[in-house]
Design goal:
The complex is a heterodimer. By secondary structure, chain A is an alpha/beta fold. Chain A has 13 helices and 16 strands. In chain A, the strands form 3 sheets. In chain A, strands 2, 3, 4, 5, 6, 7, 8 and 14 form an 8-stranded mixed β-sheet that branches. A 5-stranded mixed β-sheet of chain A has the order 11-13-12-15-16, with helices on both faces. Chain A has a two-stranded antiparallel ribbon with strand order 1-9. In chain A, β7 (about 135-140), α6 and β8 form a beta-alpha-beta unit. In chain A, α11 packs across α12. Chain A is globular. The chains are: A alpha/beta, B alpha/beta. The structure holds thiamine diphosphate and iron/sulfur cluster.
Chain lengths: ~375, ~280
């Protein structure tokens, strides 16, 4: 494909179509609106459906309904809409309905600053809905990676029957970069697994002992001869409501297990220069751009600084961080918030080792701010 | 349809793998609406595989689990939005959406008017018992003025939403109202609603003897049934009455039956247009 200048939001829309997304429901909001606009144009061309709903609650609901009908489905929003979606994200987690939710983060809380980048919804992406549930969240750092991670988001959501959140931010969403998108036929796309049993034996929530798709029972679309029940109540293997702990526990174990046992597939990250480093910078999303720059500068000045960029931020790459930071004296975590993912880093490597670099005023963290912290630490080492 | 086959309808449409008894109080009208729905589906001779029943949360929301369709019990107020997504990707399916009055008109009021306005081919059924049954009889958007509820111990001071009239104004293709006493009529309206291409609404007036009935000392379920019988008139009868006579009457009948292009069918035209324009 020829190179094109495009926004992160457009790349997300292109990635969705390439991933096989055929349904979008959403409600306009800066800085995510361009995803909806692009898809309103692209989806009908490939026989897909686009609908602008009356709000974000309805949008995520329609997305879940469409997914139950068999379509790969997407919604895209920003903080205020993401807050509204939380109840139904929990429904998707509970009923194990694949879907992708894009949150192009802007500065919050509340209406905040719609056109400013932020990473303030990291914890909300993990714990936004009530109750205990597993979740997957990915954070791209370039326009091209927005395309790639959108495809990955669909793959993971189909493979693990779970909602996947793509945490972009205003910078990535609105920034234009020259990108060359991969040809559609070179992409590896996950398809929903099909059941091999007849309707009579089908259990949409079967607690598989083990199998090729560990802990993920196939989800048959509505209207294909398998008439079953879906509910947000705790349910047995057939989907019927239950209040029996001996039916609730296996479900909990399975939905957490399906993620926990597949971390090698789910955890995406990039590391550089960790082997001989004595300081490690851990970053994600747009902040990783400044972090990468600072790391390069520090290295040209002779510092031994490693770089770890998390593409998958939930589940948190505990072991990766633990391993990377084991020998190191110091870890630097820059974030466009008052300190969110750093809480996980501190939990894993210990609070004393960690230096935070935070901004939540609508401006990007500059490489020089990170560099200053690196130099300060070097002096102390 | 013969008496015999009608009496066997429940065997064909209820889930036998599901553990009965149901969650409803003995004497509740929700089961009557369920019975009317499955008989309506039976009259239309639909394939069960092509029928979906989607609900929100509440006593009424518990209905889908008992029927042998493609069933989904969603979140409070959002059933129509879930159903819209399903209908868009499976336009060939008949999607029935069952809701309580609180579900459809309080928390779900916005989705209700927009689903009607959009004219998505869904058959909405609102069991209007004028209260929140499941949470214990608090007031709902259809609670009559002056009534006592669990949250209006000194009387209710808000106006009622007329559900059917609201749906007509919002643009629904088919709108009808009956009661759980007038089962045959209800069944007929349901069949027409499910058969209709565009958005349709059937409002089934019911009661909740366990909560609001008890709080207001309305007597037994038979008393409440008798009330529905004696305090309701057909829309034709209503026309002959003075506003004064009509004031406390439930008006039954069909309030809209019009042909408006259905949303998913219109969307097919969008796809055609987009694909033609995309040609080199
Ligand atoms: C978001 C949310 N808010 C509140 C509730 C609690 N709740 C459950 S059912 C219900 C009202 C049910 O009343 P209605 O919709 O009229 O149905 P009915 O029970 O009378 O059939 C409420 C408020 C909930 N489940 N979810
Ligand atoms: S509480 Fe009321 S609405 Fe609910 S099942 Fe009992 S009688 Fe019916």
């Amino acid at each position: 494909m020829t190179a094109r200048l495009m926004q992160g939001d457009e790349a997300c829309a292109e990635g969705a179509v390439a991933a096989g997304c055929r349904f979008f429901a959403g409600y306009p909001i800066t800085p995510a609106t361009e995803i909806a606009e692009t898809l309103s144009r692209l989806l009908p061309r490939v026989g897909g459906k686009f609908i602008q709903m009356e709000d974000e609650i309805a949008s995520i609901a329609a997305v879940i309904g469409a997914s139950v009908g068999g379509a790969k489905a997407l919604t895209a929003t920003s903080g205020p809409g993401f807050s509204l979606m939380q109840e139904n994200i929990g429904y998707a987690a509970m009923a194990e309905i694949p879907c992708v939710i894009v949150n192009v983060q802007r500065l919050g809380p509340s209406t905040g600053r719609p056109t400013s980048p932020a990473q303030g919804d990291v914890m909300q992406a993990r714990w936004g809905t009530h109750g205990d549930y597993p979740v997957i969240a990915l954070a791209p750092w370039t326009v091209r990676e927005t395309f790639d991670l959108t495809v990955q988001a669909f793959n993971l959501s189909e493979r693990y029957r779970t909602p996947v959140i793509l945490l972009m931010d205003e910078l990535i969403g609105h920034m234009r970069e020259q990108v060359r998108l991969p040809d559609a036929d070179t992409l590896e796309l996950a398809r929903r697994t099909e059941t091999r049993v007849p309707p009579r034996w089908y259990k949409p929530f079967e607690n598989f002992p083990d199998g090729p798709n560990v802990n993920v029972p196939p989800l048959v679309p509505f209207g294909e001869g398998y008439r079953y029940h879906i509910t947000g109540l705790h349910h047995d293997e057939r989907g019927y409501p239950t209040d029996r702990p001996d039916e609730i526990r296996p479900w909990l174990d399975r939905v957490f297990g399906k993620i926990e046992r597949s971390l090698s597939d789910i955890l995406l990250y990039e590391e550089d220069g960790i082997e001989d480093a004595n300081i490690l910078v851990i970053a994600y999303g747009s902040t990783a751009r400044a972090a990468r720059h600072a790391v390069k500068q520090a290295r040209t000045r002779g510092s031994r600084v490693g770089f770890l960029r998390l593409k998958t931020i939930w589940p948190f790459a505990e072991e990766v961080v633990e391993r990377a930071a084991a020998r190191l004296h110091r870890v630097v975590v820059p974030e466009l918030n008052r300190g969110q993912l750093v809480l996980e880093v501190e939990r894993v490597v210990g609070r004393q080792k960690v230096r935070r670099v935070n901004r939540a005023d609508g401006e990007m963290i500059r490489p020089s701010e990170i560099l200053a912290v690196i130099e300060d630490l070097e002096g102390a080492v | 349809m013969s008496e015999r086959s009608q009496s066997l309808v429940h065997r064909r449409y209820l889930r036998h793998s599901k553990k009965f008894p149901n969650v409803w109080c003995a004497g509740c009208g929700i089961g009557i609406v369920l019975g009317a729905i499955i008989r309506a589906v039976d009259t239309l001779a639909l394939d069960k595989n092509d029928v979906a029943m989607i609900s929100g949360i509440g006593c009424t929301g518990r209905m889908p689990v008992y029927v042998d369709f493609n069933t989904m019990h969603t979140t409070h107020g959002r059933a129509l939005a879930f159903a819209t997504g399903l209908k868009m990707v499976k336009p060939g399916m008949k999607v029935i959406v069952v809701m309580g009055d609180g579900d459809a008109l309080a928390i779900g009021g916005n989705h209700f008017i927009h689903a009607a306005r959009r004219n998505v081919g869904l058959a909405a059924v609102v069991v209007n018992n004028a209260t929140y049954g499941m949470t214990g009889g608090q007031h709902s958007p259809t609670t009559p003025w002056g009534i006592q509820t669990a949250t209006t111990p000194y009387g209710h001071i808000e106006q009622q939403f007329p559900i059917s009239e609201l749906a007509v104004t919002a643009g629904a293709s088919f709108v009808a109202r009956s009661t759980v006493y007038h089962v045959r009529e209800l069944e007929k309206y349901l069949a027409r609603a499910i058969d209709k291409e565009g958005f349709s609404l059937v409002e089934a007036i019911a009661y909740c003897h366990t909560t609001m009935g008890r709080i207001n000392r309305w007597g037994t379920t038979s008393d409440m049934m008798r009330h529905l019988k004696e305090h309701s008139v057909t829309s034709r009868q209503a026309k002959e009455m003075s506003p004064e006579e009509r004031r406390d009457m439930i008006v039954r009948g069909v309030f809209a039956d019009r042909d408006i292009p259905e949303y998913t069918q219109l969307y097919d035209q969008i796809i055609e247009r987009a694909q033609q324009e995309a040609l080199p």
